[in-house]
Specification:
It is a single chain. This protein has 3 domains: 110-334, Clc chloride channel; 360-373 and 405-638, Clc chloride channel (Orthogonal Bundle); 656-832, CBS-domain (Roll). Helices cover 49% and strands 10% of the residues. The radius of gyration is 29 Å and the shape is elongated. It is built from 29 helices and 22 strands. One of its GO terms (molecular function) is chloride channel activity. Its main location: membrane.
Amino acid sequence: MANIAKKVSWSSRGDEPAQGEGTPLLNGTGAARYSRQFSGGKLFHIGRLSTVDLEEEIDEEESVVSRPKEIPHNEKLLSLKYESLDYDNSENQLFLEEERRMSQMGFKCLEMSRWLVCALIGILTGLIACFIDIVVENLAGLKYQVIQQNIERFTETGGLSISLILWVLLNSAFVMVGSVIVAFFEPIAAGSGIPQIKCYLNGVKIPRVVRLKTLVVKVCGVICSVVGGLAVGKEGPMIHSGAVVAAGISQGRSTSLKRDFKIFEYFRRDTEKRDFVSAGAAAGVSAAFGAPVGGVLFSLEEGASFWNQMLTWRIFFASMISTFTLNFFMSIYHNKPGDFSNPGLINFGRFDSDSTEYYLYEIPLFIIMGAFGERESYCGNLSLALLHFNGPVLFLVFSRRAHVSFTPAGGLLGALFNVLNYWLTILRIRYIHRPCLQVMEAVLVAAVTATVSFTMIYFSDDCQPLGEDQLEEYPLQLFCADGEYNSMATAVFNTPERSVRSLFHSPAGSYNPVTLGIFTITYFFLACWTYGLTVSAGVFIPSLLIGAAWGRLFGILLASFTPHNSIQTLADPGKYALIGAAAQLGGIVRMTLSLTVIMVEATGNVTYGLPIMLVLMTAKIVGDYFVEGLYDIHIKLQSVPFLHWDAPATSHSLTAREVMSSPVTCFNLVEKVGTIVDVLSNTSTNHNGFPVVSRLSDGCEPGKICGLILRSQLIVLLKHKVFVERARSRLNQRKLQLKDFRDAYPRFPPIQSIHVSQDERECMMDLTEFMNPTPYTVTQETSLPRVFKLFRALGLRHLIVVDSDNQVVGLVTRKDLARYHLGKHGLEELQLAQT
């Protein structure tokens, strides 16, 4: 038997958590355990709940129940409020009849409709990206011009404090607007949205994640965040925006606007919708970075759980259309129609082959950057080495040497970023959970960011000469001589995208090492503090900017130690800025394949494909040794039942009997309407899937499994009064079709909204025609990895456990599988809680 740290012997299946449901609630109130029962009125305890003994005694468990908890989300808990999407088609009689009615031309039209939807997804995603880029460019340009003129006016006469106040007020105003619309109107629009989309594609139904309102708030919020000068980027939210566009277009209607265009009705089911959301996420990546292939690989690596060849082609098609649309309209905006040289929101600029060549002996240096990122500097006789940290604890070792070896970059610096952001997110969840406090924190971060940026510029003496080919959009002279500009202002007094491009392509000598060192440390902590605020923002560009800064610093210091007669390619800091940017982003988000292709496509040069791949692999390996990626951390903190690619390695000793939930509520093939209404109305259970069985004659045991029917199907049947007595009477009603179920998707009415009279409660309902007659089943002795593989590979919502006589003994859902994970003490089980 595997070592289980804690066993919870039940799970819930509700779209919305019900009162009295669950394990100990986080507010300290206890909740009674529920049970699945048969509809005959008697409770059948089928199978055993668990064969694993609890390590804690009962009195200790009860004391935990009565003790209040402050944290509503925790990586040690699994939330009951999340329900699974159903990727498996219900092959009932209605489905088979519809399939028989469709001709070969009908199937071809459906396939053409899928391609049409993907084209529309690409076009609209590209248009949204174009809108965001134009608005940000104009508003940010106006803000920086006003501040620049104010600083230049007060530099000689004194009164730069007024310029600081103006900068703080402008940043705070934009950020406050962006934070208010997120905190008070649509909180799900906060952040980049990538963790939520990743969960959705994994099969978790995240409430409100693909609503039209979410898209509007996301677009407006990211504009305010970037213009407000926060350490954020607008590229990450484009992935979420593309996913929302895909979810809306593919349904042919808007439930928010209550408009049905009567198109694409066949796609109104989870199976089709998830495929289109994958295409939308890829189109978002493509529009953000101008990387259509990278977008496809992003959906494959980070998002979609289910893949096939035709889906790959459609997603690639949507990505290409998205890039083309953005390119086309941006060329018109820049008065260069037909110039497709700016394919994405972020333009890294072209890396010419002559200036970006590298040699074999540089590859170990790139790998070191991915793992460590050394920086040598004289520090008297004291050196500080960051050797190791595990979890939140940092171990610092001091040694007396002539130089300091400071190694928190790439994988280590990314892991440090994730650890700090993890504890900061815990503090936010615990203490900053009210919308007004969330807005106040966002405004505070905006004010601090502006103040710190102004302070760095004010005290910087790094003055560089202005050249004809200078890349600075808003150069600040400040205290520099005529014909010179403040180099620190180039990094902080600009949008993050332009700062990244400047670090990549500015000629050698454009930045002082001290300037880069101060900027790296400061921007690192600002970005760490900013990610997780109640604003729409991404972490891609801040990560690239941090990595580009310390990568360029690495190149400068490496060149300073290189003899003057050595090969000059070592002296090019731009390529080290590119490698550092890739290492930093890979160390934070732990992407490998897709990020390699995105970086190659964004730079327009395949020369650095191998070094970037090696750097990202090294950063992921080193970072994973300490802590998970940033997106996985936030998924765990939200207590989402996320299923990884494989079951825990040491879980083969667990069987379906020990994992399943039981007893199970089952229905007969012909069931009484009153019984169905009572089961669906029971708020203490709120199940979503019910096995259909043939009852035995004595009525004491369940019959053999005949099929599976969903709550949503039963609600539609009750709404249309599909009763046996009405079918036999002269009041012949229209026969129900699959269209009736698709019209109710995805917001099925609650059972409380359906009126059933007392006479109708005595009627009978025949479920034979509507149930899925061939649900997936496993035996009690099936190992957990096999159950896990079947459940995840097929995208199931319910998996029925049967005995040797094909009788129902339990039910396996997502939460039953997601609660097992490898911990410090071997195989552990998460607690289920209502959060």
